[in-house]
Design brief:
Blueprint: H1 2-13, E1 18-28, E2 34-44, E3 48-52, H2 59-66, E4 74-79, E5 82-84, H3 89-94, E6 97-100, H4 112-117, H5 125-130, H6 132-146, H7 161-174, E7 179-183, H8 191-206, E8 210-215, H9 218-224, E9 227-232, E10 235-241, H10 247-255, E11 273-283, E12 289-299, E13 303-307, H11 314-321, E14 329-334, E15 337-338, H12 344-349, E16 352-355, H13 359-363, H14 370-375, E17 385-386, E18 389-390, H15 392-405, H16 422-434, E19 440-444, H17 452-467, E20 471-475, H18 479-485, E21 488-493, E22 496-501, H19 509-516, H20 524-528
Parallel strand pairs: 3-8, 3-9, 6-7, 7-8, 13-20, 13-21, 16-19, 19-20
Antiparallel strand pairs: 1-2, 1-4, 4-5, 9-10, 11-12, 11-14, 14-15, 17-18, 21-22
Helix pairs in contact: 16-17
The protein binds adenosine-5'-diphosphate and magnesium ion.
Length: 533
């Protein structure tokens, strides 16, 4: 019904109010997946418009069509009322459209400034070096103009995700974008970075830009958008003024059921210590102390949460736990044996499983199939071997079960991972790690970028693993998640543990916030309680 009302409005409001109109868009990928089905989508000049929907709903596809990265199977696009064919991104850019992808498309080995100007002028690699000063100048001028904080001379591989995203946005703005598409921009950001991004987006809107904001986070959408389009299963479920629709209603339209995000769990009954970290110290190459005398333990049967604003050492800690980096001093043991400088397969052999924060870099072989990815860490598992041969049936059924349980939207287990939508790729990694029956699970932002339905399942899985006897270390920037899931909790600030809560049932956001922002810290005696022998 609502959809019809809006259609009428569009006719009354006349075309010139719309910068973009996409009409009757259908998209069938070569593999047969119909990602967009008769989609209508419009953008009013100067609005922030959300596209909402679960993983696989067709949001990215629709925007890739607008940006010329994919061609619609049928349908038409009007820009400022004129029908256009957008055959490639160059055409989109010339029409004033810019897109920041779910997975950044920057060149890691180049600096921020180089990435911002990359490909703008016909330069060879050596020319680019000659023009480096100019690149920095362009980067700085635009950063100042739009009030973005960036480091032009840092290599992209060395900067945090929040800054990478700013680089992507600047790249689009420098190329003259008037319509800016952000594909799940906050999925990778901390609360602080998100707040900063929102301020920037509102400023851009005030300068007359039109912004498309893809997300499935209800609170954010309510906060920042003017209108929203909801997608489910490739179709639009409706277009609404954000002020006129409740979070519950949005959620219902997105997933088709009411989602309960409360986690039900029995009281933890921790037994022996599995992970023991003592006096861990690490100073990064910019001489910043990222880990400062960090000591804690995680026991069988419990979930220890690490809360904190991102950038306070959590990432470095996780890197140390999986030998992606080496501490300056200190010890890390799993079941009594040191894992420092141990190869990752040896760490896995000890029963350690990792859901990495950056699943695209560390988590996945994207040209391999879902099945190959899921099974990659357990070729040697007796369940999957029949004498010298693989037990193919067993492997297939394990994989099919995971696809169903984790709601991985795919045609089959034989599908290449790179063909999946971003959220579904994440689910493949999480499914593999959680289903490997670890002794110690390190889960770093396990539900980031994942839709509500699968999030609920993943959270319950984590609880179940711990209740079956796994030790779980949960790092999450999502305060609700870390409080809900953890049995006990530490807060990191400036590379240190500033608080330890043995029991999380009485915690609230406000108290946590004070520790997380460094306004408060507990005594050393209180903090030392987290170091079980
Ligand atoms: N390049 C592709 N080839 C084949 N199928 C794809 C491709 N990209 C996405 N899909 C499929 O199209 C559907 C919609 O994906 P996508 O638009 O990425 O969803 P969303 O962004 O809403 O999560 C999914 O089922 C996905 O697996
Ligand atoms: Mg997407």
């Amino acid at each position: 019904m609502e959809q019809e009302v809006i259609v009428e409005q569009e006719e009354v409001v006349e075309q010139e109010d719309f910068v973009v109109q996409m009409r009757g868009i259908n998209k069938v990928y070569p593999n047969g997946i119909a990602a967009n089905k008769d989609v209508n989508f419009s953008l009013r000049r100067g609005e922030i418009h959300a596209i909402m929907g679960e993983n696989g709903a067709g949001k990215s596809t629709l925007m890739k069509i607008l940006f010329g990265l994919e061609q619609p199977t049928s349908g038409e696009i009007l820009i400022n009322g004129q029908p256009v064919a957008i055959h490639n991104p160059q055409k989109a850019i010339s029409l004033g459209i810019g897109m920041v992808h779910q997975h950044f498309m920057l060149v890691p080995s180049l600096t921020v400034a180089e990435n911002i100007v990359l490909g703008m002028a016909p330069t060879t690699k050596s020319r680019l070096l000659v023009d480096y000063k100019k690149a920095v100048q362009i980067a700085e001028e635009n950063a100042a103009r739009y009030n973005f904080r960036i480091e032009p001379n840092s290599k992209v591989m060395d900067i945090p995700v929040g800054m990478k995203q700013k680089v992507e946005i600047l790249k689009a703005l420098v190329r003259g974008a008037k319509i800016l598409i952000l594909d799940e921009p906050t999925a990778v950001l901390t609360t602080q970075e998100t707040t900063e991004l929102f301020k920037e987006l509102i400023a851009l809107k005030e300068q007359g830009l039109t912004i498309v904001f893809i997300s499935h986070k209800l609170k954010e959408i309510k906060q920042i958008t003017d209108r929203l389009t909801i997608m489910r299963g490739g179709r639009t479920m409706g277009v609404y003024n954000t002020a006129d629709i409740s979070e519950a209603e949005i959620s219902r339209l997105m997933v088709g059921r009411d989602v309960v995000l409360k986690v039900v769990k029995d009281k933890a009954q921790p037994t022996e210590t599995i992970l023991k970290v003592r006096d861990l110290e690490y100073t990064n190459r910019w001489n910043k102390k990222m880990l400062d005398k960090l000591s804690f333990s995680v026991r069988r049967g419990e979930i220890l949460g690490i809360a904190g604003v991102e950038g306070n050492g959590q990432r470095e800690l996780v890197e140390m736990l999986f030998n992606l980096n080496t501490p300056d001093t200190g010890t890390i043991t799993v079941c009594g044996e040191s894992i420092i400088n141990q190869p990752q397969n040896k760490i896995r052999d000890r029963g350690v499983s990792l859901v990495p924060e950056d699943r695209m870099t560390y988590g996945i072989a994207d040209i391999a199939t879902i099945e190959e990815n899921v099974i990659s860490d357990r070729f040697t598992d007796s369940r999957f071997n029949k004498g010298p041969l693989f037990n193919v049936q067993e492997i297939h059924s394990e994989c099919d079960n995971l696809i169903v349980d984790y709601r991985i939207l795919a045609k089959s287990r034989k599908q290449q991972v790179k063909m999946l939508s971003g959220g579904n790729i994440q689910k493949v990694v999480v499914a593999r790690e959680l289903s490997s029956k670890p002794t110690l699970l390190i889960a770093d932002q396990p539900t980031r970028g994942i839709d509500v339905g699968a999030t609920e399942f993943i959270r319950n899985e984590i609880v179940e693993l711990s209740r079956e006897g796994a030790a779980v270390l949960l790092v999450s920037a999502d305060l609700n998640e870390v409080i809900e899931l953890s049995d006990s909790l530490i807060v990191m600030y400036g590379g240190k543990i500033v608080a330890y809560f043995e029991d999380t049932s009485q915690l609230d956001d406000e108290v946590m916030g004070e520790y997380m922002l460094g306004l408060k810290h507990q005594t050393e005696e209180e903090i030392a309680k987290v170091s079980y022998e």
